[in-house]
Prior knowledge:
- The structure is a single chain.
- The chain is mainly alpha-helical.
- Helices cover about 45% and strands about 5% of the residues.
- It has three domains: about 1-30, no CATH class; about 40-70, no CATH class; about 70-108, no CATH class.
- The protein has five helices and two strands.
- It has a two-stranded parallel sheet with strand order 1-2.
- Helix 4 links the parallel strand 1 and strand 2.
Amino acid sequence: MTLWLIPAGSRGEHEQKFLDESRVYVAWDGLDVDLGALLDRQGLIRVMEDRFPDEKAKALVNWSSQVWPCLFVSWSGFKPNVQRELAASFFKVRLWSRKDLLEKLYAN
Length: 108
């Protein structure tokens, strides 16, 4: 069974927020943007360039590679356009339904 660790900040400082809101977030100081609104990784890099203008381009590419790949879980399923976008994704992204997630959790 594969498990993913989703850190709630570098020292767990966002843990209570995650628990209170029953959500997980990309907890990256200064990156106050809705990642769901970005169409691709290049969009994320452009946002990072705006937020962190003093950083080197290679650092921003590295950071974006840590933020962009995600496991997305939807309790109500995914729209067909999300499935089409997945096929063109640079990174391996896994889309799981509620059923997929629960099956994996309870398999072992």
